[in-house]
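Hi Y.,

Following your request, here is the sequence exactly as I used it, all 171 residues.
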Amino acid sequence: MGKKIATVITKLFEDSEFTSPNEALTEAGHEVITIGFEAGETVEGKKGEASVTIDKGIDDVKPEEFDALLIPGGFSPDQLRKDDRFLAFVKAFSNDEKPIFSICHGPQLLINAEVVKGKKITAVKQVAVDLKNAGADFVDAEVVTDESGLISSRTPEDLPAFNKAIVEALN
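Below is the corresponding structure, written out as tokens. Let me know if you'd prefer a different format.
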């Protein structure tokens, strides 16, 4: 039985950090739902290689409708983290210990949702200090799995290992 994966995303996301996990999850039989500011909006990746039409607006969803959360990197997490609706959405996944999959700059959203303290996590190098300052246990590795269900990776180069880990986590 496939799971429903909420993906929070907006313009200037890191193209492959959405397309690659999306493909891996879909091929494994899961349903990936994109959630942005407004349903029907089309958002472009920062490299212009991917374009995504948002399935649902943040006001149209509830965390309990989903089994896991995917946060692609790029500039998207930085834009989402200024919106309290996205912070509350993310915080609910953490509070319920549902799987959260975060790559590259994705942890910026987790930091602002105040859900990283005491958790093992990785991210792109420039976010490491922010994670440490937020009380996270930063680990520089291609995939880091925390006992809470948080799975994180650093960059697009880590995608094969990240995709394997997130698909296995849902089985």
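DSSP finds six helices and eleven strands in the chain.

Thanks again,
Q.
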